[in-house]
Amino acid sequence: MDGQFISMKPRILLVDDRPGNLAALEGLLDELNLVFVRALSGNEALRLTLKQDFALVLMDVQMPEMDGFETAELMRSNPKTRHLPIIFVTAGMKELKYQFKGYDAGAVDYMAKPIEPVILRSKVRVFRDLYLQRMELEFHRKNLQELVDQRTIQLRLAAQELEQRVIERTEELQQLNRQLESFAYSVSHDLRAPLRHIDAFSHILMDDYSQALDGEARGLLHRIVAGCDNMGKLIDAILALSRTVRQPINKMPVSMERLARETFAQCREQYEGKEVEFAVSELPESQADPILVRQVYANLIGNALKYSSRREMPKIEVGAFPDKGETVYFVRDNGVGFDMRYADKLFAVFQRLHNGNEYEGTGVGLAIAQNIIQRHGGKIWAEAEPDRGATFFFTL
Question: What region holds the Response regulatory domain (predicted)?
Answer without folding.
Answer: 11-128
